[in-house]
Design a protein that fits this description.
Blueprint lengths: L1 E9 L8 E4 H8 L18 H4 L7 E7 L2 E9 L4 E5 L5 H9 L8 E2 L7 E4 L4 E5 H23 L4 H7 L3 H7 L8 H13 L3
Antiparallel strand pairs: 1-2, 1-8, 3-4, 4-5, 6-7, 7-8
Helix pairs in contact: 4-7
Length: 198
């Protein structure tokens, strides 16, 4: 039987989210399933820096628990970029559905291309998704980062990068028609994440 988990990652800190471990894997890893394990997500090594290092554009220098939330672990770089991962055993699909149904205190919208179970929470700059949907989103984020960094390192201005539209093929699947996840706005955010590190 599979025990579905939810991971929430802060995006402009950079975002992503979700996990899935079979109950036998969870029992092997911690002696019981993740819901019943003692300690926080960092201490239990449900996720490690190696699991999320490819998402951020700098080495992870700190891993710490979130006070009062034993299901979350924050991974940070020497700069401001960080990612918080929250593992919610058995609650992935329910949590995403709750956000999308408007039963949370902030607005969430479906996130294009991240499967049936993903939501973008604009005010929190978070993606809420289940693992099956997340890997493809992660791969897109890494591709976007690499393409824009190449242009940034070549000295291209924001306007030149926007004109070059290096994410045009990704926008077909991933971009929303408007708002923060629209093609141009997403491209600006990726570009400025490099500019803000200098």
């Amino acid at each position: 039987m599979t025990n579905r988990c939810l991971l929430v990652l802060g995006v402009l800190s950079l975002a992503v989210g979700a996990c899935s471990k079979s109950t036998s894997q969870a029992a092997t890893a911690g002696g019981s399933n993740a819901q019943g394990a003692a300690g926080n997500a960092c201490d239990r090594k449900i996720l490690t820096a190696a699991d999320v290092t490819g998402i951020l554009n700098a080495p992870i220098t700190e891993t710490k628990a979130i006070p009062g939330d034993p299901q979350s672990c924050k991974f940070a770089t020497a700069g401001f970029t960080s990612i918080t991962v929250t593992v919610r055993p058995g609650a992935g699909n329910t949590t995403v559905d709750t956000w999308l149904a408007g039963r949370m205190p902030l607005t969430a919208v479906p996130l294009a291309g991240v499967g049936e179970r993903a939501a973008w929470v604009t005010d929190l700059t978070e993606v809420v998704a289940t693992k099956a949907n997340l890997q493809e989103f992660h791969d897109m984020m890494v591709t976007a980062r690499d393409r824009v960094k190449k242009l940034f390192d070549a000295g291209k201005t924001e306007q030149e990068v926007l004109a070059a539209d290096p994410l045009a093929d990704l926008n077909v699947k991933w971009a929303a028609p408007q708002g923060i996840t629209s093609g141009p706005n997403f491209l600006r955010n990726v570009y400025n994440s490099f500019r803000n590190h200098d």
